[in-house]
Give the backbone structure.
Amino acid sequence: MLDLRNNPGGVLEAGVAVADDFLSTGVIMTADGRTPESRFRMEATRGDLINGAPLVVLVNGGSASASEIVAGALKDHGRALLVGRKTYGKGSVQTVLPLSRGGAVKLTTSRYFTPSGASIHGKGIVPDVLEEGPGEPPAELSAGKDAGPLTERDADVRLALGVLKDRAARTAHPTPLVSRAFVP
């Protein structure tokens, strides 16, 4: 399970690198802008850290920007199921331009798209398993030994683990595509 709840993103390349850790091939994201350098695509390299094991990604309204790149790529490639609430919807690439007197300007230079070509800007990504309402804040991982297990303190983690167990069971025992009825 990968928990991207309340992850506001960060550096584009870092988000691409995380998605690449779980993908072996394919487009991770594309960007389109006015200038040639603002139009690009980033692709996965060979290798999957968990060798194709089932993966669930937790997201919510605080998942934005680079974390949405990760979630969108893993969802579009069918590599992971997204669980939680709709993401924030920040689908823009920003460039920091230094100024001569030590300051800087952050300029939006591109919009990015998921591998399927979807723009999430202003829309967000809807999870495969959608929860309603605002939800509780994610439980602290380091709440102390008296706080009890994370699965008891975080309903979203419980749900994601259930989805992950179900997905792992279906992968281990796939349902036949053709059902054969017994005919005497």
User: Anything to note?
Assistant: Residues 54 and 171 are 8 Å apart (CA to CA). The chain is about 25% helix and 20% strand.
